[in-house]
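Ticket #4471: structure export looks truncated?
Reporter: QA, pipeline team
Priority: medium

Steps to reproduce: submit the single chain below to the structure queue and open the exported record.
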Amino acid sequence: MPTTPQKTKIKCVLHSAATVRAPSGGIKQPKSYSGLGNRKGLGKDLGVIGIGGRKGMGAFAPRAGESPVVVLRMQVLGCKDLLGKDSGGRSSDPFVVISLLTHRFRTPVQRRTTNPTYAPVMATFDIPLYLSLVERLGLGSLEAVAWDKDLVGKEYLGEVAVGLEEWFGGGGEGYGEGRGKEERVFGFKAEGNVPFTLPLISTRASTPSQGRITIKLGLVRTSDSQNVMGFDEIYAELIKRSRPSLVSVPPVR
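Actual output as written to the record:
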């Protein structure tokens, strides 16, 4: 019996994940995917943010009935040497907001510290990735912004942005040491997937760049996943689809 070429297998799997099946009764609408941030007792899910910060799916909505091809799981372990905004500059009440496309999550607030640590159950978030939105990933980054919680409002502490192509090999402290690209680890629970540390930067003139954040990234499958592709194949496909196509660029005259 002839074997199916690898490229054909990948195309079939991706087509199956992105195709909306419409039975005789209309489009089948599966239950919406719920990440860790939606479950009771975990970090706060700030909901879906539309264009201009308004609630709603806007132009970032997946196709009706589409299932995510994979889930990006992010854990915020903590921060070090943050700016002190309270008590004469000796401490802060920091929390971290995570965002990617329309998804936003928030860790709990740690009181009176510049070196917060967050329990995994309170600071681990799942972000579903859809093939129909992959091109958007190439235009944005996974962002983590540290804030100091005040009685009224909040104060900016710094941020970090990790682009799609840097999720697994961004060069952070402790990440991928001694590994080549062929040895990168993609599964969140896979042996060898370790947290890494990145310096926080400031995009505001009134706030100096100070502090570091430690995070862990990895891919996990959805609970109803029938995808037989490996995480390395899925990630490679995400990278490929996120890059602007030269075919779509108009000729230069």
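Status: closed, not a bug. The export was complete when the record was re-opened. Leaving a note from the reviewer for reference: The first strand starts at residue 44 and ends at 48.
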